[in-house]
Each structure stands twice: as structure tokens, then as C-alpha cells.
């Protein structure tokens, strides 16, 4: 265990940056629903949360890209509004996006002073910019990067340094780092941490976002945990908060949810989906399992462990580098979605809006997206039949509002998900792959999705699901596969393992 | 909304309604009022705007040019001019709705006219039937379009670049074949068929109307059209729903080449010649007509009626300028202004529609 780096956090009565009760709505979804965050000068404040917990929205609120619907932002105790990216920078909040938003075609110095170029009478003061860039780079311990070097020729780590230099050139007092380690090699991460420590010793506050808990142990001072758009753990000192507690805060349920029925209460039939030694080079390997009719199998693990990739490879959206997938005994063609769909496999993808729906098309056309050809007569659509079937699904799944002609964009996340499931019900799928089935679904509507999944299984479908919420997997699934770093580290009935057991397995697998 | 959902939940949990219907047991449908919105309410409003614009243009034409504008002869001229661009634009509508762009239509059209008027083709046509020339033009267009499609869909080259390359290459090939000379159509049956009027309108106008009508049916009433909208609207969602996105993309470019071939026939019918310069810059006119018509340039929504109206608007505008002895340059400026105006209005409507 590395020594905890407990920086000297002064008990300053007025925090540098304080957010309280931040709420942000989007059409059909509540991205933030009461976020509190308190950041002190000179600390490394870690922001934890699963995908979809609201971290990215919060970052955008801080960066001035989104305006909150309600809530208060205080800077040095005074209420401020951050109504544009420029306003954020003027205040002293700089954001390092994960996508490394640097301009590859410009030099290091040009990138550092992008948007506030040093000039006199309209002419760029190039040598001055180079001098100051060199100073900043030295401060960051990266004097070896020449200010004139084209940024496109730098590594990801180098680009990150350029982003940090840009923040410093703006005299930022708070730097938001969105998963900075995700693009780095282990040695580069050490380097990053060195820079982060030197920045915080100069009094700069860092808001550090990462999925990797061991990193937070190394670099963080305090932690705020987000879940479902709310702050569920605030200002936890890194040194005396055990990791399982953190994971529980991230993955645990915020409200009591009825998963309906206990696992193993229904009959299981024929094996419908048989996966053998499935591998995808560099992502996961040697995954073997079977899902029977009437059975729900859940994949648990941390983000990045390879869960979604397993689902997508079974579906043919990614081409397996080894192993076989059989549906009802027949092997599917690797890397062919139509082959899987024809065999009766349906996928409700993780990113529903970008991977699943035609947002500006009516609900019924989204429901019949994989079956409209079946209703058609010699190539001519039968929209009447499509609407009829869609209406049946809408009634049966209680999609609200019950209007097949409505643009699906205007529906809430839960109702969009129902339409997604309806698509595969109309298709008559025997094997359903559900990736984060309750992502972006309001907490209140989740139980409905759960009961729907149960009914599907009870009707004889084989369900394979992925969820970041361990409770959800354990509550719904009959069998659980725990995945860590691309390997299945446990496979067994869901009622013989509890959340702690899963977490221990995840931890062991991740450190191994 | 969430209270609603929660209420639904308790109901669902308590009564646990029967299984959702699947295709396994397609129960007879509960007779629901079939929505009239099927035809797209906003689309009607958009087209109405275009009709109004066209009527205003015609009033402008009448005011400035009087009876010369309204004469049957002049109106025939307008629609005959619109026919060639119109046929190209129908194919272009499909490509753009499917999320692509086809810059090669003009030069593919030129190549098709050249290929159909070579000595060899015309000799064969004279010996057999004039339809040989039609087949030649359409085949050349379709093959060029499919080549575009293969490069875009399977070579994963951006359609802008792939079709730009085809634009240059097809023009060059046409020059090589024709040796940069104008090849006169001398198959008399071809000339008399396409030169004739039918029910008071030139044959090529009927050809345009037929292509537009078939295009409308194809886009709005067939699985091909639905796939086009899906592929253009969200290719990833289409792929994950089991639609063969690459193959469909190839077909879309093939279709655009096919209509360019038909347009080549219409142009040969109107001018009686094939040259390598035929159809130059038609791609811009076609894209302008499609976009002004209301088809989204980013894909996912297309309208054939809008495209036809867009073509007519530009053809009428050109005609009015000619009648008033205004220069082609002034006309180009006006055309540019109309494109910008139309797109601005479209965006205004679109943002109001979504809010």
C-alpha cells in the first residue's frame, strides 16, 4: 500500500469553490438532482461516480457549458454565475477534458495562449509567448517540451501537460481533470501525480475525476461521491474511508428498489445462448457461459472490465478474435449483427440515444426498426400494421404518453428504454442482451423496467445483462459472472454471493 | 413524469399484466384510430412555404415580364429545363437523406451522354433499337454510382472525397472517349421520341414526373426508403438493429448514378448531343434544390416533393432573369441568397419544432 498523501488541508472557513443544490434538467431526464461540492484551495478533491452519475454534466456546469436550472455556486464565499466558458476561465476555473482539447496543428505555445494570445497592436508576440510558456512548463516539471513543437507530435501525456500549462497561463485556481489517467501509461501516471502535487502545493485546487480507486488513494485528499445526479458522500477524507465504503456509495441503491421475486423461482429450459471461449484480443479472453430459456445472467464488474465489450461481441457488433457464440445450437457468424438478429438476438445498447434510437422519428418506427421489412409486402411498407403492433406494445408496456406517433426524443429515459425492449419483443427475440438497462432511467421508473425484464425471462427468453450497479445484477440475475480486467473471475448463482463477495472478487481480479 | 412512472409501477407490480405480445402471437389488433399524422404535419407546412415562394416568384415573373412569362411556351421551357436537374435531384435526395453527398452526378451525367452517343453505340442503336442508347446511358450512370458506393461503404472513404474523385475522373474519361468533340445524336427515332410532346408536355418532362413519383413512393412507402432514413438518421442504431448499413449505402450511390443516367437521356433528348461538358456544375444545382426543398443535409430526413419544388423555384428564377435580360452573374448571386435564406428559415422552423 502506498503511503496516503494527506496534504495540509487548512480548516479555512470559506471554501474556494462551493456548489450547493445544483439541479440540471434535460428534456426527458434529470442529469443533476441536487449536487453539493466543496473545494478548498490547495487540495486534490476527487469526484467519484459511475457512468451516468452526473459527473460530466457537473464538469460542464463548472466549465460554463451548461447553466444549472437551480442551485448556487459560490466563489470565495460570493455567489457567482458561470454563464459561459469565458466566464469560467475569468473566474479561475479551467477544465481539462478527457478528449484532450488541444489544436494539433498549432505549436505548444500557441495552444497554451489559445484564446488569450499575447499581442501588441494585433501582432502576435511570439517570443514572449515562448518565454512564458517555457516558464510554465518548467513549473510543471516538463522543461523538456519545446514551446515551438507542434502539439500533434506530442504524446497523450504531453498534450495533457499542454492543457495544464494552458490552465496555469490563465491563472486558474481550480483545475478540473476529467479522467486524466485514462490515456496514460503507468509511468506517465506517476509523472502526472508529481505535477498534480506540485500544483496543489502552490495552492491550486484540483478536482480529480477517475474510475480507478487505487489512484484516488495515491493522490486525493478528499472525496465527493455522486450517484444518480446527487451527492451521496461529501468531503470524505481519503485517509480514513475504506474502499468498499466508496464502492458501496457508488454502486449501492439510493432508494429501496423492488427487483420483484427472488432469483431461481422460475423454471429454466433449453440452453438458448452458448458462449464458448469467446475472446477479443486485448479486451477480454476465454469467456464461457450458457444462458437458458427463462434465465437471467448478469455480468458484474467495474467500468472498463470488458463487460459491455462481451455483450457487443456476442451480438456481432465487434468481431471476436476467438471462440464461438451459439444460439439454439447454431453458431453465429462472428462480427455479423444481421446473423445475430436473424437468429433471434436483440441488444438494448448502453448508449440508448446514440446507439439505439432514431430520435427524430416517431415511437412506432423506432419500435419496428428491426422488423419493418417483415410487415412490408414485396418491399412496400405496411405502416398501419406497424402502428398496430407498436400500439399493442405501448399498451402492454405502459409507455407514457401512449402515443405511437410522437417523436421518441420527447419521451423520458425509462419510456425510451421500454420502446427499445418493445423493438425486440416485436422481433420475437429469444435472447436479449441488455447493457445497463436502467441507465438514464429515473429512479422511480426503474422498478418497472425490472419487472419487465423478469416477465421477459418468465416468458421463455434468455436474458444476458450488464450493470454497473451490483445490487441490480444480484437482485435480477439467476447467475452472475464477475468480470475483472477482461477475465471472468467468478461464475455462480446470484443467491450464493453478496455485494461484498462481488466487490472482493473485483478487487482481487483488478490487482492481480 | 416520474410520479406517473412510479404509479404505473405499482399497478404493474400488483396486477402483472399479461405478457407483452410478441410476433409469436400477433393478436388481432385493438382497433385504434390510425393517426393521420402519418404523413408528417410539419412536412406539409414546409412544402406550403415552398409553394408560397414559388407563387410569389411567378407573380414577380408576371409583373416584370407579363404575358411573355405566362405563355404556354415559356412555361414549357421552364419545366423542360427543370426536368434534367430534377431527375438528378431525386437521386441526390436519397443520398443526402442517407447521410452522404454525391458531387459526381454532373460529370457522370456528361460521361453517360458521351458514352451513349459514340459512333459504336449509335450504330448499334440504329441497327437494333434506339432504346440501346437509353440502356447505355443508364448503365454507365449506375456503374459509376455503384463504384462511388463501394468506395464509400466498403472503402470507408468520406462521400465528399470519393465522389469528388469520381467527378474529376468521369469528366476526364468523357473527354478521352469523345476527344472533346460534341457528338450529335443521329438516331432519328431517339430524337423524335424525346423531341415529341405528349399531352402538351415534352416527353422529358413526363420522364421527370415519373422519376419523381417513383422516388416519392420509394422514399415514403418502401422498406428501401425506411432504411435510407434510418441509415442517415443514426447509422449506429441502424446497424445494431440489424440493417445492412454498408450495403444500403452502396445502393444509395448506385441509385444516384442511375438517376444521373436517366437525366443524361433527358438532356440528350433536349439538346440532341453528347459532350464531355454536359452536366457541369449540375451537382451544385441539385444539392441546392434538395437543401432548399427541406431535406436535412446531415441526413435522416428527406422530402421528394420539397426537392421538386426546390428545382422548380430555381428554374423559374432563372427563367425570370433571362426574360428580363439580367446577366447570369446576377442570377448566381440571387441563387446564393435564396439558398442561405431557405436554410435559415428551415433552421428556425426546426428549432421551434423540437422545443
Secondary structure elements and pairings:
The complex is a heterodimer of chains A (512) and B (355).
Chain A lengths: L16 E10 L2 E11 L4 E5 L6 H8 L7 E6 L2 E3 L4 H7 L1 E4 L11 H5 L6 E2 L2 E2 L1 H14 L16 H14 L4 E5 L7 H16 L3 E5 L3 H7 L2 E6 L2 E8 L5 H9 L19 E10 L3 E9 L3 E5 L6 H9 L6 E6 L2 E2 L5 H6 L2 E4 L3 H5 L6 H5 L4 H4 L7 H15 L15 H15 L3 E5 L7 H16 L3 E5 L3 H7 L2 E6 L2 E7 L5 H13 L1
Parallel strand pairs in A: 3-10, 3-11, 6-9, 9-10, 15-20, 15-21, 18-19, 19-20
Antiparallel strand pairs in A: 1-2, 1-4, 4-5, 7-8, 11-12, 13-14, 13-16, 16-17, 21-22
Helix pairs in contact in A: 4-5, 14-15
Chain B lengths: L1 H14 L25 H25 L1 H4 L1 H26 L7 H12 L2 H9 L3 H23 L5 H20 L4 E2 L3 H8 L1 E2 L2 E2 H19 L1 H11 L1 H6 L4 H27 L1 E2 L7 H12 L10 H20 L4 H27 L1
Antiparallel strand pairs in B: 1-4, 2-3
Could you please describe the fold and organization of this structure?
The complex is a heterodimer of chains A (512) and B (355). In chain A, the strands form 5 sheets. A 6-stranded mixed sheet of chain A has the order 6-9-10-3-11-12, with helices on both faces. In chain A, strands 18-19-20-15-21-22 form a 6-stranded mixed sheet, sandwiched between helices. In chain A, strands 2-1-4-5 form a 4-stranded antiparallel sheet, with no helix packed on it. The model of chain A is unreliable at 1-10 (pLDDT under 50). With 512 residues, chain A is an alpha/beta fold. In chain A, helix 4 (126-139) packs across helix 5 (156-169) and helix 14 (383-397) crosses helix 15. Chain A has 3 domains: 1-6 and 16-92 and 173-180 and 207-251, P-loop containing nucleotide triphosphate hydrolases (Rossmann fold); 255-344 and 430-512, Rossmann fold (3-Layer(aba) Sandwich); 353-428, no CATH class. Chain A has helices spanning 55-62, 85-91, 108-112, 126-139, 156-169, 186-201, 213-219, 243-251, 307-315, 337-342, 352-356, 363-367, 372-375, 383-397, 413-427, 443-458, 470-476, 499-511, and strands at 17-26, 29-39, 44-48, 70-75, 78-80, 93-96, 119-120, 123-124, 174-178, 205-209, 222-227, 230-237, 271-280, 284-292, 296-300, 322-327, 330-331, 345-348, 431-435, 462-466, 479-484, 487-493. Chain A is built from 18 helices and 22 strands. Chain B has 355 residues and is mainly α. Chain B has a domain at 82-303. Chain B has helices at residues 2-15, 41-65, 67-70, 72-97, 105-116, 119-127, 131-153, 159-178, 188-195, 203-221, 223-233, 235-240, 245-271, 282-293, 304-323, 328-354; strands at 183-184, 197-198, 201-202, 273-274. In chain B, the strands form 2 sheets. A two-stranded antiparallel ribbon of chain B has the order 1-4. Chain B starts with a helix and ends with a helix. The chains are: A alpha/beta (512), B mainly alpha (355). Chains A and B meet through helix 10, helix 11, helix 13, helix 14 and helix 15 of A and helix 1, helix 11 and helix 12 of B.
Amino acid at each position: 500500500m502506498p503511503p496516503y498523501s494527506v496534504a495540509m488541508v487548512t480548516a479555512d472557513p470559506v471554501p474556494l469553490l462551493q456548489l450547493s443544490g445544483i439541479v440540471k434538467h434535460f428534456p426527458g431526464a434529470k442529469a443533476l438532482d441536487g449536487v453539493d461540492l466543496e473545494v478548498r484551495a490547495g487540495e486534490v478533491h476527487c469526484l467519484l461516480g459511475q457512468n451516468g452519475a452526473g459527473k460530466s454534466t457537473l464538469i460542464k456546469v463548472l466549465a460554463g457549458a451548461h447553466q444549472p436550472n437551480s442551485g448556487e455556486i459560490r466563489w470565495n464565499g460570493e455567489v457567482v454565475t458561470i454563464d459561459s466558458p469565458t466566464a469560467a476561465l475569468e473566474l479561475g476555473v479551467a477544465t481539462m477534458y478527457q478528449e484532450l482539447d488541444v489544436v494539433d496543428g498549432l505549436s505548444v505555445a500557441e495552444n497554451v495562449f489559445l484564446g488569450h494570445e499575447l499581442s501588441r497592436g494585433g501582432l502576435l508576440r511570439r517570443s514572449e509567448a515562448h518565454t512564458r510558456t517555457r516558464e510554465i512548463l518548467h513549473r510543471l516539471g516538463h522543461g523538456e517540451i519545446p514551446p515551438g513543437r507542434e502539439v500533434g507530435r506530442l504524446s497523450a501525456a504531453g498534450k495533457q501537460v499542454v492543457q495544464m500549462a494552458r490552465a496555469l497561463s490563465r491563472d486558474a485556481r481550480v483545475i478540473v481533470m476529467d479522467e486524466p489517467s485514462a490515456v496514460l501509461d503507468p509511468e506517465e501516471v506517476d509523472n502526472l501525480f508529481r505535477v498534480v502535487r506540485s500544483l496543489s502545493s502552490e495552492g491550486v485546487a484540483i478536482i480529480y475525476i477517475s474510475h480507478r480507486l487505487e489512484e484516488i488513494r495515491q493522490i486525493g485528499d478528499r472525496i465527493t461521491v455522486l450517484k444518480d445526479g446527487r451527492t451521496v458522500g461529501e468531503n470524505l477524507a481519503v485517509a480514513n474511508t475504506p474502499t468498499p465504503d466508496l464502492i458501496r456509495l457508488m454502486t449501492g441503491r439510493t432508494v429501496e428498489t423492488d427487483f420483484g421475486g427472488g432469483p431461481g423461482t422460475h423454471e429454466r429450459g433449453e440452453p438458448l445462448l452458448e458462449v464458448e471461449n469467446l475472446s477479443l484480443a486485448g479486451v477480454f479472453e476465454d469467456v464461457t457461459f450458457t444462458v437458458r430459456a427463462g434465465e437471467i445472467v448478469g455480468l458484474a464488474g467495474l467500468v472498463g472490465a470488458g463487460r459491455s465489450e462481451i455483450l457487443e461481441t456476442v451480438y456481432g457488433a465487434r468481431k471476436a478474435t476467438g471462440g464461438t457464440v451459439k444460439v439454439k445450437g447454431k453458431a453465429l457468424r462472428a462480427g455479423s449483427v444481421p446473423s445475430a438478429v436473424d437468429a433471434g438476438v436483440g441488444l438494448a445498447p448502453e448508449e440508448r440515444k446514440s446507439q439505439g434510437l432514431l430520435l427524430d422519428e416517431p415511437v412506432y418506427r423506432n419500435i419496428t426498426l428491426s422488423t419493418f421489412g417483415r410487415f412490408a409486402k414485396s418491399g412496400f411498407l405496411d405502416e398501419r400494421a406497424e402502428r398496430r403492433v407498436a400500439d399493442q406494445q405501448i399498451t402492454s408496456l405502459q409507455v407514457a404518453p401512449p402515443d405511437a406517433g410522437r417523436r421518441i426524443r420527447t419521451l423520458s429515459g425509462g419510456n425510451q428504454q421500454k420502446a427499445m425492449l418493445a423493438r425486440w419483443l416485436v422481433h420475437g427475440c429469444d435472447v436479449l442482451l441488455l447493457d445497463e438497462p436502467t441507465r438514464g432511467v429515473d429512479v422511480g421508473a426503474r422498478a418497472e423496467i425490472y419487472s419487465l425484464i423478469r416477465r421477459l425471462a418468465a416468458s421463455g427468453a434468455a436474458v444476458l445483462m450488464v450493470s454497473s450497479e451490483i445490487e441490480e445484477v444480484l437482485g435480477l440475475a439467476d447467475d452472475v459472472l464477475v468480470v475483472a480486467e477482461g477475465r471472468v473471475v467468478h461464475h455462480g448463482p446470484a443467491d450464493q454471493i453478496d455485494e461484498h463477495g462481488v466487490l472482493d472478487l473485483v478487487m482481487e481480479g483488478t490487482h492481480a | 413524469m416520474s410520479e406517473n412512472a412510479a404509479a404505473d409501477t405499482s399497478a404493474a407490480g400488483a396486477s402483472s399484466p399479461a405478457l407483452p405480445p410478441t410476433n409469436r402471437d400477433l393478436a388481432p389488433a385493438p382497433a385504434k384510430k390510425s393517426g393521420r399524422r402519418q404523413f408528417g404535419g410539419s412536412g406539409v407546412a414546409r412544402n406550403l412555404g415552398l409553394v408560397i415562394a414559388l407563387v410569389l416568384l411567378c407573380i414577380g415573373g408576371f409583373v416584370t415580364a407579363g404575358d411573355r412569362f405566362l405563355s404556354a411556351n415559356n412555361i414549357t421551357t421552364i419545366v423542360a429545363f427543370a426536368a434534367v436537374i430534377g431527375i438528378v435531384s431525386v437521386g441526390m435526395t436519397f443520398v443526402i437523406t442517407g447521410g452522404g453527398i454525391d458531387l459526381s452526378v454532373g460529370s457522370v451525367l456528361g460521361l453517360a451522354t458521351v458514352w451513349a452517343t459514340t459512333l459504336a453505340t449509335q450504330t448499334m442503336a440504329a441497327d437494333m433499337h434506339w432504346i440501346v442508347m437509353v440502356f447505355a446511358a443508364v448503365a454507365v450512370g449506375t456503374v459509376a454510382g455503384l463504384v462511388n458506393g463501394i468506395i464509400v461503404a466498403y472503402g470507408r472513404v468520406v462521400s465528399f472525397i470519393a465522389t469528388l474523385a469520381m467527378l474529376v475522373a468521369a469528366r476526364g474519361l468523357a473527354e478521352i472517349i469523345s476527344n472533346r468533340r460534341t457528338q450529335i445524336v443521329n438516331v432519328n427515332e431517339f430524337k423524335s421520341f424525346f423531341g415529341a410532346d405528349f399531352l402538351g408536355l415534352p416527353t422529358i418532362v413526363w420522364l421527370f414526373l415519373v422519376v419523381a413519383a417513383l422516388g416519392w413512393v420509394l422514399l415514403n412507402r418502401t422498406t428501401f426508403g425506411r432504411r435510407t432514413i434510418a441509415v442517415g438518421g443514426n447509422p449506429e442504431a441502424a446497424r445494431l438493429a440489424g440493417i445492412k448499413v454498408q450495403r444500403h449505402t452502396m445502393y444509395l450511390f448506385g441509385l444516384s448514378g442511375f438517376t444521373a443516367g436517366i437525366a443524361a437521356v433527358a438532356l440528350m433528348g433536349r439538346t440532341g448531343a453528347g459532350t464531355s461538358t454536359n452536366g457541369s456544375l449540375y451537382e451544385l444545382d441539385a444539392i441546392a434544390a434538395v437543401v432548399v426543398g427541406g431535406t436535412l443535409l446531415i441526413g435522416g430526413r428527406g422530402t421528394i416533393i420539397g426537392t421538386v419544388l426546390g428545382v422548380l423555384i430555381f428554374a423559374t428564377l432563372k427563367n425570370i432573369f433571362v426574360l428580363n435580360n439580367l446577366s447570369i452573374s446576377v442570377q448566381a448571386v440571387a441563387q446564393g441568397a435564396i439558398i442561405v435564406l431557405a436554410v435559415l428559415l428551415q433552421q428556425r422552423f426546426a428549432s421551434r419544432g423540437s422545443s
